Structure formats: C-alpha cells, structure tokens
Amino acid sequence: MSQYKIIFTGPVGAGKTTAINSISDVPPIKTDAAASDMTKTRKAATTVAMDYGIMNLAGGEKIHLYGTPGQERFDFMWDILINGGIGLVLLLDNTRADPFQDMKFFLEAFDKFIGETGVAIGVTQMDVSMTPTIDDYHLQLKTLGLKPPVFAVDARVRNDVSVLVQSLLFSLDPGAEEGL
Amino acid sequence: MDKIKRPLRVALYAMNERSIRTMAMYLQGPCKGAAVVVDEASADIDIFDGDSHNAKQLLAEHAAKPLSRPIIVLSLQSIKLDNVVLVKKPVKAEDMLGALAEVKARLEQQARQARESQQSNNDPIANDAAAEQPVLKKYARNTDAQKGNKHQTAMQLNEAAFNAYIGVVPGVDVNDPTQFAKAAYNPKDYFQDYIQFAINTSHEKGENLQLHTGWRQVVLFPQSRKIWLDADDKLLRAFANVKVDRLTGQKMQLSPFKANLSALNDEPEKFHNLDAFLWKVACWTSKGRYPDAINLEHPVYLKNWPNFTRLLITPHAMRIAALLVQEPKTVEEIIKALNIKPQYVFVFISAAYALGLVGQARREADELVQAPVIVPSKKKGLLGRIISKLRGSNA
Predict the structure, then answer these.
(1) pLDDT tens digit string along A85-117?
(2) pTM score, two decimals?
(3) Which value does ipTM take for this structure?
(4) A177 within some domain
(5) How many domains does chain A have?
(6) B159 touching A (Cβ < 8 Å)
(7) Which of A63, B34, B41, B165 has its CA 20 to 30 A from that of A107?
(8) What is the CATH number of domain B8-118?
C-alpha cells in the first residue's frame, strides 16, 4: 500500500512539533534535545532530527507527517524528507526578528518541491505580535510571484492546523472533494 | 465562564521574555486562568523551565532560599527533586492543571497548618479577595488592543448546515439560473455597508469610533483591528438581513469613542476581529445572493486567499478560493468546474468582496483568455480522503 507524506517546515520555535501533534493520530515521535547552540535563545529544547506523526485514513492508508529539524545545520536531511511528499506546510513565527527573511529562506530552500507540489503558510504567535500582518505576507509573496494560502495559526489548535492542511490540499486540486 | 475565580500567582524562572509571554498566555488560555504570572515577591508558587541552560543553578539557588512555596518544573527529562512537581514537555493543559491543583492543595494544607499554630489566617489562596492585587508583569494583557485577542478558530459549515445557519431569501431560488437577476443584493441597503464605511473611516482617521445604529452599541478599534458589539450572533444575524433604510438608516452616524473602556473590557466575548466580523455579516446579508456590483458575465479574480483560520468557512469556500487564485473565472465557470450550487459561490463572493479580496477582471486579455479546464490531480482521491479525515474529527 502506498504511503504518503506531508512535510512541516519552518524556523526554530515556529510550532512544527506542536502542529504535527495537533493532527497526528499517534503521539508524535519526538527527537527534541536541550538546545546547546544559538537556538537556545529561542527555545530551550529543539528538534535535532525530525518529528513524526501519522494520520490513519479509512481503509488503512497512512499519511506520514514529518517535521524538519529547526536548525539549519540539519538541512542536509531535507532532501531525504521531502522525497514522496504531497506538499509543504511552512510555519513562521511572527515574533522573530525578520519573519519575511525566514519565509524567503524556506521558500527558496524548498523551491523545487513547492514547484512540483504546493505550499501553505501558517503564521504563529500572531496574538503576541500582530505585525507583520497576513496582508503584509501576501504583499511579500506577490513580489515572489506566489499566491499560496497564508493563515494565522495557533499550532496548538487542531482546527487551525486542519484548515491549513486542507488549504494545501485544495491548492493541489480545487476539484478535490471530501470523501472522494 | 469556567475560569477559576482565585488564580494561583506564579513566578517564572529560567525563561526568556518570549517564553514568559507564551507562558502567561498559556495559563490564561488553555489553562483557563488557573494561574497568573506575577513578580517573585507576589507569587504563591514558582515555575522553572528545567531544560534551560542555567536551570540547575537557579533551582539550587532557589532551594537555598528561606522560601517554602511549591515549585513546578517543566522538562523533557524525568527530574526528581524534593518539593518539586514535574510537568513533562510537551506541556499539556491537563498536566499543567493537574500540577497547579496539586500545588494549590499543598498551599491550602500549609495555610491550615499555619492557622492552627499561629491562630491567624495567612492562607495565600483563601485571602485572595482581600489581598492586594498582584503586580502583573508588563506582558500581562491590559490594553484594549490586546483585549479580545483570544481568537476564535474557523467554523466550517457543510452543505447541510448552510441554510439553517446562513438563511435563505424567501421567494427567490438563488440556485435557479433563470432567477440569477433576482439573486443580487445591494450592500448599501443593509447594516453591512454601514459597518464597512465605519471600518474604513476608523482606519483612515486612526481613531476609535462609535457607530450609532439606533440598535445596539458598536465600537471600532482600528489599531487592534477589533470591533465591539453589544449583541450576540443570533441578534446580529437577524439584524444583518433587515433593510436598514426602512428602519433605522436615518439614525446611523459615527462619532469618536471617548467613553471608558473598562465597561467594554468586562465583556470580552463581545469583541470580534474586524475582518471576521465583516465577513460574517456579509454572509448573513447575502443569504446565498451576490452583490449587485458583480457582473456575472465577467470573470472574478481573488487577490489572495482569505485568512480562513479566522473566518466562517462556508461550503466549498476553500475550493473556490483555490480555483480563483489560479485564474479569474466567471461565476458560471466556477459552478461548472466545481460542480456546486450557485449559492455557495455567491456567498463566498459576497464575503470576499466585503473584505476587498474580490474584483472583476476588466482587462480585455482576461476576457479573451479561455478559462483552463481543471486537470484533476492523480492524487485527487487521496486528497479527498485526507480532507475527510481532517474534517471528520473537527467537531
């Protein structure tokens, strides 16, 4: 039976682990460790390999949910992760110094994969920092020639993550319908 | 409304500013106000991030102090320390609430023992009402801009719920192409237009404004993008579909809002995000009709995806958005491409138009270009099954 992946990426602390936890049917297999490098200024523990969750579909199919390591020094793993991926969920932390730079970095890093599949962007921590606004993100994306879904997301809220992933799937095929 | 009336006062250690802010919101939100973050001197208990690089040192220093209050440690590790309650990461609200309940019980026991031995009541919990207000740190929510910031996640309507929640227009079958001409409405006839005007004016002036409706009090806060309405959704839904000119149109006017905010802050549930509010009002005004400014013969384009996690998601709204961001399309093309009822297209266009996200392609090139046929994804069935899974557990 075929197995498919949805990839979650984004900078340290953007909520990848939490988002996977929100929609996974099994407790996510985490590989967090106490941060010992520059990431400790943002998060006491960080994902050093990958997060992994599963969505069990009717009929026994499984959708594998992979979170990329937040630290860029593990970016060599990204190519392995995206192989066979359905699409990309990019989570951005609105309290970071320059979330646009983060966005561009990840969009460029996954440029080929996005071109072949699609991307949906979730902006976390918007209740802590209201700016940049979602409109500001769209303006930035316009300069890159992209019009992906960009939503405010609380990664702890299942419905937020669900709507974000649904938007990714509809981006891939607006004709997709529930249950078909 | 299930907030714990006497929250524990907690001091945080070994956390950076961002973690402290997050923790304060976590205690207020998922932990339902069971605890508030205060300064060290005002605290009942202490919470440490056990994975911080200096946590061990801070805990050791803390243990040496003549304090007898309980400690909660959040950690990925299984730490065992005297007088410490461990909450394993990732921290779940139920675990945190359990830990808070445990330390609260300890405090109450300590207070009882102290009362018995000293004949005086020094219970830090029971005395909460009489005690001085804790000194909240600067990240505590205390401004109108932050009030009501707790967002409401999207409500996804399915087809079965549409008519009951959105409503129908008597005497018009909006799904009958021969009646499309009668399926248009003018937003200017309704509360929707007054709200849109008020929002635009408050943004232009950068000023809090009050909209006098002759109905219920409406206050707009452009900085925080909030609106305060002294009515619940049931009343709003009914009012949204009343033609204003017949009833109260003459009375509607804007004025600066100068009253005391504290009265509004007492009812935070009446604050709404401006976009979510306007979107919802447009849906209820539309009832499956379309704005008369939209020409059904011309293609419609979508500037960008609406922020769906914060909006009412009407049936097929995400599919329509996904289709329209690709290429401008006429309403008929959308209906055919997605094989859906016109009312779902009309209501989406009404809401997106209210937010300024929808326009009509006027350029000749757009009209000459044949709308491309959607090429179904090879994974269409799989995508549908994942969507079912995601929606199936949404309730």
Answers:
(1) 999 999 999 998 899 999 999 999 899 999 999
(2) 0.70
(3) 0.89
(4) no
(5) 1
(6) no
(7) A63
(8) 3.40.50.2300
